[in-house]
Design goal:
86 residues; two-stranded antiparallel sheet
């Protein structure tokens, strides 16, 4: 299943009577077109809400990994700058 328009997101899901699409756009200032996809074969036995929360956890983990990689790159750059100044 692929949702590729913000109107479809707003039509399908609501959170506390507010369209989730509006919450995403207000809180996270995402682009107007949001693409949300998931692999149905891996998640077919779970409720859709559980699937969404699982995807959010995976995205947060990916972001955390990217932050670690960036920190490591910054450390490497600092070391390289130190060698350059020798």
């Amino acid at each position: 299943m692929v949702l590729n328009s913000r109107n479809k997101l707003a039509e399908l899901y609501e959170w506390n009577s507010n369209p989730i699409e509006g919450k995403i756009l207000e809180d996270y200032k995402l682009k107007l077109d949001v693409t949300l996809s998931y692999n149905e074969t891996n998640m077919k036995n779970k409720s859709f809400e559980s699937q969404l929360f699982e995807m959010i956890k995976e995205i947060k983990a990916d972001i955390a990994n990217i932050k670690v990689e960036i920190a490591e790159m910054k450390a490497d750059i600092t070391v390289l700058k130190g060698f350059h100044n020798i």
